[in-house]
Amino acid sequence: MGGLALIVMLALNLRPLIASISPLQNVIRDDTGMSFQSVGLLTTLPFLCMGLVALISARLAARVGETRGVSLGLMFILLGCLIRILNPSAAALLATALVGGIGIAIIQTLLPGRIKRDFSRRVPLAMGVYSAALMSGGGLAAWISPRIAGQTGSWSLGVGLWFIPALIALAGWLWKVPQTRGSRSPVAANRLWYFPRAWVLALYFGVINAGYSSVIAWLPAYYQHLGWSSSHSGSLLAWMTMFQVLAALVMPALAQRQSGTDRRLLLGISLLAQLIGYLGLILLPGPGALIWVAIAGFGLGACFALGLILALDHHPDPRIAGQLAAFMQGIGFIINATSPWISGALREATGGFIAVWIMLALGVSAMIGLTLIFRPSRYETLGLERA
């Protein structure tokens, strides 16, 4: 099994625990008595874990090593999915959102540094494949879970069956990768808190990707509110994922072909696609559903991949670049975590989802302006090597 195939296998496990909930949330709410905000926590908690764990990723890598860390992450995901089958209650769902979220977070923060190290001359392409696989896992879950639930009459089986790919990935990882001890990174993670550029990257990454957590939480519910069935509304997420995957492959490939590391044009195009998609959901949600979801999905897929590439561009040392990417993801995913929770509150307050799409459109508009500051000529002046 090649190194890139192994990365793909791991990435496929990083979104099903989250994305499988969305198309089934109405039946879950009916069965468990959870409110919109409580169901929103099933998306918020994993993203919050992604943020908090990313901030301690350097210490984690130093203590347990990359191999053991990824293995531990897969076991947490596996456990979280199994518990959902065995105990389909509101409390268990919230607990598994935490357990599985920690597992996702561990893997997600360790892989970018490995990609930078193993694919030093093809970082944009490798990061694109990783991002595409990550998003594919979410799309498959959104498409398969409601169908399994419908055929078996068990929503818990629909959201819990994803322990199977986690088990397969764990076996492949342990078979392929030798055990390694932790090692100290040349950058102390807590020092990054003092670098303004690290905070700018974190804010930027958080806002340009906040749409994903809100969309997977509420897009099916939005269209169910408009009269769609759970399986058809869940298919919208799978449809969106096709364009996320396309963008995660195409835009990094274009980045790879660039002579330099200026990603501003590609990022600007990606953010504009998100904005058009959100405006379409606001103004013409019914007739143009497939169009707006496709355009927004393309923008979201491109922004995630390009955001990671942007962080890795900032330093040639894979360990320093990986740690900067981990810090960026740490703060960024905490921002992501607030998005579905705030969206749920807006849904409760307004009785609809239009306010959610307006919030996302405003955030993306602000980030289009911020994109202009990422001039590669300034990367070497940031002083990260002195951290």
Task: Chart the SSEs and their pairings.
Layout lengths: L2 H9 L4 H4 L5 H8 L3 H20 L1 H30 L3 H29 L4 H30 L2 H6 L2 H14 L19 H30 L4 H28 L6 H20 L5 H25 L4 H33 L3 H17 L17
Characterize the biggest β-sheet: none
List how many beta strands DSSP finds: 0
The secondary structure category is mainly alpha
Order of helices and strands: HHHHHHHHHHHHHHH
Task: Please report which band the strand proportion falls in: under 5%, 5-15%, 15-25%, 25-35%, 35-45% or over 45%.
Answer: under 5%
Radius of gyration: 19 Å
Distance between the termini: 37 Å
Uncertain spans, ≥5 residues at pLDDT below 50? 183-188
From the spread of the alpha carbons, the general shape counts as: globular
Query: What quaternary form is this?
Result: single chain
So how many helices? 15
Mean of pLDDT:
87
Percentage of helical residues? over 70%
Task: Describe the fold and architecture.
- This protein has 387 residues and is an all-alpha fold.
- It is built from 15 helices and no strands.
- Helix 4 packs parallel to helix 6.
Notable characteristics:
about 375 residues; mainly alpha; globular
Question: How would you summarize what this structure contains?
Answer:
With 387 residues, the chain is mainly α.
